[in-house]
Amino acid sequence: MSIRSEFHQLARSAHGSHDTVKTRHQILDRFADFLRDENIQLRHVQNIRTKDIQRYCNAQLEHGKGVRTIQNELASIRYALREAGRAEFADSEAMGNKSLGISGASREGTNRALTRDEYQQARDALEARESYAERAALGLMYTLGLRTKESIMSDKSLDDWGRQLERGEPVRVLYGTKGDRPRDVHIHDREAALEAVQEAKGAMHEGHLITGDAGTLKSAYDRLQNELREVLPDDISPHSARYSFAQSQVNHYRAEGYSDREAFAQASIDLGHGAGRWRYIRHVYDQRENT
DNA sequence: GACTTATCATTGGGCTCCCG
DNA sequence: CGGGAGCCCAATGATAAGTC
Prior knowledge:
The longest helix is centred in the first third of the chain and has 20 residues, at 18-37. The chain is elongated. By secondary structure, it is an all-alpha fold. The protein is built from 14 helices and 2 strands; from the N terminus they run H-H-H-H-H-H-H-H-H-E-E-H-H-H-H-H. Residues 1-85 form the Core-binding (CB) domain.
C-alpha cells in the first residue's frame, strides 16, 4: 500500500464534519504529491521524519503560501500522524509550528466593513437585476449580522424572527451557524430588521429563499456568493455586511453607556462568539475608519 | 497554540449566439 | 452545422476565521 493510500484512509477514519474531512483529504494528497515530486521515497506514514516535514514547510513558504495556510496544513498532517499511532512524534517539540519556522502569523482580519452607501448601491444593483431573493439575503446579513450560509438557511426561521422582533425579543439563529451553535441576537434597529425579514418572506419561492440549479445547499451558496460579488465593490466580500452589523452593534451599546470593552463583548455575543472574544472583535470588526 | 470549519478566489465546463 | 468568443455558474483549491 502506498503512503498516499495510507493518507487517504487516515483522513477518512478521523473525525470532523464533512468539509473538514474533505479538506484534510486534499491536504494529505498534496503532501503525498510533494513527497513524490521531491523523490522522497517513503513507503509508510511510520517512516516520515521531521526533516521531510521541514522540507515541505520550506517549499510551501518558498512557493509563497501564507504562514497561516501552512499552519493549517500542518494541523492536518499531525492529525494523520496521530491517527497512524504516532502521537508522540506529532506532538513533539520538533513538530511544533515554532520549530518548523511557521509561527507568529497575524490573525487580524483583512476584510473591511461595508459602508451604508455601498450597501444601498448593492441593493439597487440587485433590484435592477431583478435578483430580489439575493437582495433580501443581503438585507438579512446586514441587519441581523448573518453569515452567508445562515441567510440561505433562513427560510425556516423567518416566521419566528418576525414574531421575535415584534415582541422585542432577541432573534434566535438556529440553522447554518458555524459549528452548529445557535445564538440569540439582540437587535437595536428593529424596524430595519423587521423590514428585511418581511422582504425575505416575500422573496421566497417554493419554500426557499435562495436556490441553485442543482437544488443543493452548495449551489445556492455559490449563486448567492457570485451574485453578491458582482454588485459589491472589489475589496468587499459578502461577509463584510456582517462586519457592518458588528460595528453598528458596538455603536449602539456605546450609546447606551456601555464601556468600550463591554460594548465589544456584547457585540461578540450577538455574532455568536463568547463574551471573552471582545478583543478579537475589536481587532477584526471594529475598524475605526469605516464607522 | 493547535485543531476545525467557514469564506473567498480561481478555474474551467458548458451553454448560447454568431459567423462562415 | 462546426467552431470559437463570451458569458454564466458550479466545482475546486486556497486561505481566513472560528473554537478548544
